[in-house]
């Protein structure tokens, strides 16, 4: 028992060292190389860290960071629902795929921020516009990966389900489960896109949020504060990616075992 605990701690320490080793080295190098900087646009990292504590460890976090996270979560959740639902239909039935193929080919290459002027006129400057933009930016990787995953489901599985006369609901569940590795791959890409589109939408049409605050610091020449916002965005992206990785690892544990890709101990 004790040996198992020690081995687990060793694996955790090794994983943490691999994940944080290079960022720590880069952070220290940035701190040392910028220590004597007199460039107003490239301040020393020590000033950026000081500004980080003054700005984000205050009521600004509640006023600007939490609204951004709420928009990100809502838009991303909407993209997940629409992407998986429509992607399942496109991948499952050829007639739906043939009907929607030209439309999907057009909109998938259309950058979501391009629609901001149209949505401002049609919807207004409220949160609804930002949520639509985030969802439109994030939906395509999920939709396309879901469709590909559903199309790639082994025919033997479908035939077996038909032979055993499983209910349609059960069959749909089996298909989604088989396609879940590709669905998660699309969802992982969509998470990064959601964060990017969220910041862009807040920079262009918001009075609060991370993007708005960073651009406000830039316009008022509060350069250390601006860099602190960029640093916070990077930390948020890193944290969200690691959280998603933990969820994916737990949900797709069966897939790694079935394909013989179980992580070494």
UniProtKB/TrEMBL annotation:
Q: Which residues cross the membrane?
A: 12-33, 73-91, 103-125, 131-153, 221-244
Membrane protein topology class: Multi-pass membrane protein
- Source organism, top-level taxon: Bacteria
Q: Which GO terms describe its cellular component?
A: plasma membrane
Q: Kindly state which keywords UniProt assigns to this record, in alphabetical order.
A: Cell membrane, Membrane, Transmembrane, Transmembrane helix, Transport
Q: Which SUPFAM superfamilies match?
A: MetI-like
Q: Does the keyword Membrane apply?
A: yes
ABC transmembrane type-1 domain ranges (all copies): 83-251
Main subcellular location: membrane
Localization of this protein: Cell membrane
Report the record's Gene Ontology biological process terms: transmembrane transport
Q: Is Phosphoprotein among this UniProt entry's keywords? A: no
Output the PANTHER family linked to this UniProt entry: ABC TRANSPORTER PERMEASE PROTEIN MJ0413-RELATED, ALKANE SULFONATE ABC TRANSPORTER-RELATED, MEMBRANE SUBUNIT
Name the record gives this protein:
ABC transporter permease subunit
* Species whose genome carries this gene: Micromonospora radicis
């Amino acid at each position: 028992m004790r040996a198992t605990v020690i081995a687990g701690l060793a694996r955790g320490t090794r994983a943490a060292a691999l994940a944080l080793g290079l960022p720590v080295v880069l952070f220290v190098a940035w701190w040392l190389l910028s220590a004597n900087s007199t460039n107003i646009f490239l301040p020393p990292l020590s000033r950026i860290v000081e500004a980080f504590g003054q700005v984000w460890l205050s009521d600004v976090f509640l006023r600007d960071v939490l609204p951004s996270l709420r928009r990100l979560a809502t838009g991303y959740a909407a993209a997940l629902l629409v992407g998986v639902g429509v992607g399942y239909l496109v991948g499952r039935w050829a007639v739906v795929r043939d009907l929607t193929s030209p439309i999907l080919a057009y909109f998938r290459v259309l950058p979501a921020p391009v629609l901001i002027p149209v949505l401002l006129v049609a919807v207004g400057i409220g949160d609804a516009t930002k949520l639509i933009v985030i969802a439109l930016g994030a939906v395509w990787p999920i939709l396309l990966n879901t469709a590909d995953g559903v199309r790639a489901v082994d025919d033997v599985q479908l035939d077996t389900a038909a032979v055993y006369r499983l209910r349609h609901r059960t069959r749909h569940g089996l298909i989604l489960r088989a396609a879940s590795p590709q669905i998660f791959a699309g969802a992982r890409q969509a998470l990064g896109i959601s964060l990017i589109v969220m910041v862009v939408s807040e920079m262009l049409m918001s009075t609060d949020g991370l993007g708005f605050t960073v651009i406000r610091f830039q316009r008022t020449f509060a350069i250390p504060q601006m860099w602190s916002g960029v640093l916070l965005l990077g930390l948020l992206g890193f944290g969200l990616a690691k959280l998603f990785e933990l969820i994916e690892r737990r949900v797709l544990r069966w897939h790694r075992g079935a394909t013989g890709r179980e992580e070494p101990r």
